[in-house]
Amino acid sequence: MKNPRWKLSKYAVFAGLLFFSGCATTPYSHLYVLIALSEAGRAPESLARPTLRLQSVSLPGVLHQPNVITEASPVLIQSSEFERWAEPLEGQISEVLARNLTALLPGHRVVRGRLHPQVKADIEVHVEVLQFGGILGDRAWLELRWSQDREGAPPGLHRWRGQRILEGDDVQAYVLAQSELLAEASQTMAKQLSDG
């Protein structure tokens, strides 16, 4: 006669294998990047052009993580486990703003970060991201504040806020809307920078 415990343990092992095989497969992570305006038709590089240095971009603390953050309600944020930024968001925003300003200000040489100690920028820009959020399936919003320091001129402080209705209910639609908002903010920034 077979031992009933052996039969029970056989079923327990089988049930355990079934349970863990369901946990063994995980969904793929989706990696997202912000996109810049087209740089087609850009003026050739010339060192004689004024240099605009995008010195820094700062973000709210909650955005310093690889997961894409959206809002579910005014008091609840969502951090998606499988929807991630391909690289740190701070760097992406800085890169997109620099590329956008390069496309919008062909008379300027736009650089990011540090310059050689002997090279001085004609215009220094510091950007603070005040809000970068949205609700999936609804809208995205962006609010920036930036300061510009230009030699021989008083420092200027500017603010821009915008929102966009999403053209879908997924993270891709959210990321595209944020890219469009960054393009709009860049246009305002370029106009104020070129006006002096």
What is the gist of this entry?
The protein has helices at residues 4-23, 89-104, 171-195, and strands spanning 30-32, 51-58, 67-73, 76-85, 109-112, 123-135, 139-150, 156-165. The chain is of the alpha/beta class and 196 residues long. It has one domain: 3-Layer(aba) Sandwich (Rossmann fold).
Tell me the major beta sheet.
5 strands, mixed
What is the averaged pLDDT score? 84
Which residue ranges are poorly predicted, with pLDDT under 50 across at least 5 consecutive positions?
Answer: none
CATH architecture grouping: 3-Layer(aba) Sandwich
* Sheet/helix structural class: alpha/beta
The CATH superfamily turns out to be: ABC-type transport auxiliary lipoprotein component
Share of helical residues:
25-40%
Key phrases:
196 residues; alpha/beta; Rossmann fold; 3-stranded mixed sheet; 3 helices; 8 strands; 34% strand
Description of the structure:
- By secondary structure, the protein is an alpha/beta fold.
- It has one domain (4-195): ABC-type transport auxiliary lipoprotein component (Rossmann fold, 3-Layer(aba) Sandwich).
- Helix content is 31%, strand content 34%.
- The chain contains 3 helices and 8 strands; from the N terminus they run H-E-E-E-E-H-E-E-E-E-H.
- The protein has helices spanning 4-23, 89-104, 171-195; strands spanning 30-32, 51-58, 67-73, 76-85, 109-112, 123-135, 139-150, 156-165.
- It has a 5-stranded mixed beta sheet with strand order 5-2-6-7-8, covered by helices on one side. A 3-stranded mixed beta sheet has the order 1-4-3, with helices on one face.
- A hairpin with a 5-residue loop joins strand 7 and strand 8 (156-165).
- The chain is elongated and about 90 Å long.
